[in-house]
Write a sequence for this structure.
């Protein structure tokens, strides 16, 4: 498969993952599926890991990859469309940007899962009752959170989704770095068999 066509597939995958991440981050603003005071939201929600890192920022490489036409892979060996080689090289740079954005979302999600959600504690104060992820292995500790209802499972599920999405996005961007390198050195033209007219195999 040509590098340009393969990049389009990766771009479509990144777009879908971006929508999932964006949606998950939006839902985090409604812990337990309910609207609460903005001061009662976990701090990590405001870092917009899913909205910025895995969401909007990821659309840059996604659109770049989608713009690499399948036919372009057969033009990089000729003089008429040699700019396509540079387009493949540019996709590597965009892939790095996407990797960093997904990495940001990954760090925010992992830290939030470890820290636990902000909730109303037994002393009628809002705070973070968990330490070092102790609640992950002991559900009896969940009773420390009185409000919002189901906030622990809500945050844990959504941040886990963001974590998984971020990992998948980093993998996709890493694949495109390799794919872009192959396209830049014109291996994709060989797979298309379009270099024969230029005296290359």
């Amino acid at each position: 498969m040509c590098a340009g066509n393969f990049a389009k597939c990766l771009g479509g995958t990144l777009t879908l993952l971006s929508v999932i991440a964006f949606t998950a981050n939006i839902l985090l603003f409604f812990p337990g599926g309910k609207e609460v005071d903005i001061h009662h939201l976990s701090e990590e929600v405001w870092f917009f890991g899913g909205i910025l890192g895995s969401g909007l920022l990821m659309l840059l490489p996604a659109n770049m990859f989608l713009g690499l036409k399948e036919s372009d892979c057969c033009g990089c060996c000729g003089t008429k469309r040699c700019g396509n080689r540079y387009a493949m090289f540019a996709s590597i740079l965009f892939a790095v940007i996407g990797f960093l954005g997904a990495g940001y979302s990954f760090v925010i999600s992992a830290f939030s899962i470890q820290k636990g959600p902000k909730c109303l504690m037994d002393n009628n104060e809002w705070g973070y009752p968990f330490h070092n992820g102790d609640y992950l292995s002991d559900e009896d500790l969940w009773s420390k959170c009185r409000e919002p209802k189901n906030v622990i499972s809500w945050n844990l599920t959504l941040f886990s989704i963001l974590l998984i999405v971020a990992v998948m996005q980093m993998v996709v961007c890493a694949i495109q770095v390799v794919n872009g390198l192959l396209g830049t050195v014109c291996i994709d033209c060989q797979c298309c068999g379009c270099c024969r007219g230029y005296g290359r195999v």
About this structure: Residues 3-198 form one domain. Strands lie at 119-120, 126-127.
